Amino acid sequence: MFSRFKKPDGTEAKPVTAAGPRPAAPVASHVAAPVAAPKPALAVRPVAAPPSAEAVAADKEKKRKDRLMELKVELHKKLLESLNLAALEHATEANLKAEIADIASEALTEMSVALNKEDRATLNQELYDEVMGLGPLEPLLKDESVSDILVNGPHRIFVERGGKLTLTDITFKDERHLLRIIDKIVSAVGRRVDESNPYCDARLADGSRFNCMVPPVAVDGSLVSIRKFKKEKLGISDLVRFGAFTEEMAAYLQAAVSCRLNVIVSGGTGSGKTTTLNALSSFIDNTERVLTIEDTAELQLQQVHVGRMESRPANVEGKGAVTQRDCLRNALRMRPDRIIVGETRGEEVIDMLQAMNTGHDGSMTTIHANSARDGISRLENMVAMAGIEMPLKAVRSQIASAVNLIVQASRLQDGSRRMVSITEITGMEGEVISMQEIFRFERLGVEPNGKIIGRFNATGVRSHYSDRFRQWGYDLPASIYEPIV
Ligand SMILES: Nc1ncnc2c1ncn2[C@@H]1O[C@H](COP(=O)(O)OP(=O)(O)OP(=O)(O)O)[C@@H](O)[C@H]1O
Ligand SMILES: [Mg+2]
Predict the structure, then answer these.
(1) Domain tally for the chain?
(2) Would you say the CB of residue 275 lies under 6 angstroms from ligand 1?
(3) Domain membership flag for residue 18
(4) Residue 277 CA, ligand 2 centroid: distance in Å
(5) Using a 6 Å cutoff on CB, does residue 233 contact ligand 1?
């Protein structure tokens, strides 16, 4: 019987281990192959596993992408040489795509490169995105399920979907490619980023909020954050449906906004402050004149009578800045019924508090804070940092009489965004601002898949503004203040 452990002449071959000597090379030419190493039961040599089918496919896909990327760079250069850039503005999308496909096809033939139909279509689309749009970011901007795009250098692009961050397989070719796209965005709004001016805020053509920071301040390559603009803003009923708050809380908030309480939405980054503010604004009566002030215009009010203002940073010569405070001061002379400031983060706090205290009831803003109490401290700090020399007690009483309600938004670990607390400010007790929580989100546990289990509950405290609600025709049933036990 044939045995592969046997030499052809019948003598036993010595088993060879990893550490042992290699088998002697066959002397006679008629010996076809060197003796194969035996495979004893306890082989010492770690045998490298053959690459899995997925790994092979992934490697193939990566090579295909790299090749397409190289081709894209090459063709992009050729396109810029051949396309009549001045005519681009007037060309329709279909015409332009056809033109690009023609030029690319010619160039590919010249380069003797054959591509299958699918790769050719991908390449043409990417070339179109490079010339007319924001290159690799374009498919993400078009993807409705993506709410944020976060670029950490050219090779790592993350997206947020449903409150969760994931790494995509989309990349820029290199830092230069990324910088070219950044430059395209910022130059469209008349700004420039470079070593001496390494960061910039801008608004994309579709309304999305954009921020970038370039090297050397950004250490591992340019950083870009884009908060996608949603045409269809989430309304109160959407937020109730998504479990951001309950119908009872919505009824309470409707009463609060309609009765012109001054409301602050507090929360961390991306916790849903602007979305909540926008949804709350839907309770404002259509007859009122509302002025909105933002650093980047995101709010979309549904009322007829809305004046929108956007602050402006200084230009490259350091001139022409218009701050939120400038807008706010001017707004006070524009006969507003209500003023909405997108986010209060600096010296405009003084004018905001004054506006809230002096006849512009029903004004609203957001602040970056982790709880209602923290929100108050933030306001105090902002007043102090604005250089107002006022005793703390006076600052506090100013805040206590200006702000009626703090709504706390939060993004929980499972990515869900919830209104975790609604707190009323009821006045001052000595030196301390007194507050009462009306509703809160109670966490009860976590499901095995990480989803947070919890419920909204009333605290049992009746609203300080109940009489006002009733006088204005919002007779909320006492049951909404009753806690579930
Ligand atoms: N309750 C919600 N359910 C689902 N998505 C939400 C909810 N609230 C907000 N979002 C989405 O989360 C993203 C961030 O929301 P938003 O811009 O309101 O946050 P923010 O707190 O204002 O952020 P920033 O601090 O960056 O200004 C948006 O894409 C928004 O559509
Ligand atoms: Mg916001």
Answers:
(1) 3
(2) yes
(3) no
(4) 9
(5) no
